[in-house]
C-alpha cells in the first residue's frame, strides 16, 4: 500500500531532536516507516535467499540494526562490546526461529528508537569532536558518524527493497 503521508523530512521538525541532527532523525524514521511496510507479511522462508548473488534480506535486516548500534557507539566515544562484536560476526549467517522476519524488523525498530534517544541527548557543541572508529581508530567526528549511520541505513534499505521485490515477483 503506498504511503499517503509526506516523507518524514516534509512533516516539520521533530520535537527534542537538536536542529543540526534533524536530517539524521528524518532519514532513520523514513527508513523505518518504509521498511515496516515492505516487510509486512514477508515470508521467513525467503529471508536467506540471495537472488543473483545479492545479499539476503536477512543479512540486510541484521546489518541495519548492527551498524546503527556500532556507529552510535563510536559517536559516544566508546568501543564495541563483546556482544556487539559477536552480533557483527553473526551478520549474514542464516538463522532460524519462528517469525524471524518480524523479530528482525522489531530489532531494527528498537535500534532506531535507541538512536533517536541518543540524538535527543546529543549536545550540538560536541558534533565536531573527534571520534575513532574501530580497533584502528580511523578518524571521524560525532557528526560524521551520525550522518554516516543515516546514509548507510538508507543505502541498505534501498538494497533490501530491491532484493525483496525480486524475491516477491512470483508470490
Automatic annotation (TrEMBL):
Domain named DinB-like: residues: 28-160
Any Pfam family: DinB_2
Protein's recorded name: DinB family protein
Organism in which the protein naturally occurs: Mucilaginibacter gracilis
Amino acid at each position: 500500500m503506498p504511503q499517503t503521508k509526506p516523507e518524514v523530512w516534509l512533516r516539520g521538525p521533530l520535537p527534542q531532536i537538536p536542529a543540526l541532527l534533524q536530517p539524521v532523525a528524518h532519514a532513520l524514521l523514513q527508513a523505518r516507516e518504509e521498511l515496516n511496510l515492505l516487510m509486512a507479511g514477508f515470508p521467513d522462508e525467503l529471508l536467506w535467499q540471495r537472488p543473483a548473488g545479492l545479499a539476503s534480506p536477512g543479512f540486510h535486516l541484521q546489518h541495519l540494526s548492527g551498524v546503527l548500534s556500532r556507529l552510535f557507539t563510536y559517536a559516544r566515544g566508546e568501543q564495541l562490546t563483546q556482544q556487539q562484536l559477536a552480533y557483527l560476526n553473526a551478520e549474514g549467517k542464516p538463522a532460524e526461529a519462528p517469525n524471524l522476519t518480524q523479530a528482525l524488523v522489531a530489532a531494527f525498530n528498537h535500534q532506531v528508537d535507541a538512536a533517536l534517544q541518543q540524538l535527543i541527548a546529543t549536545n550540538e557543541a560536541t558534533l565536531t569532536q573527534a571520534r575513532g572508529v574501530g580497533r584502528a581508530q580511523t578518524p571521524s567526528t560525532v557528526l560524521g558518524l551520525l550522518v554516516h549511520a543515516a546514509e548507510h541505513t538508507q543505502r541498505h534499505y534501498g538494497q533490501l527493497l530491491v532484493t525483496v521485490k525480486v524475491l516477491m515477483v512470483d508470490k
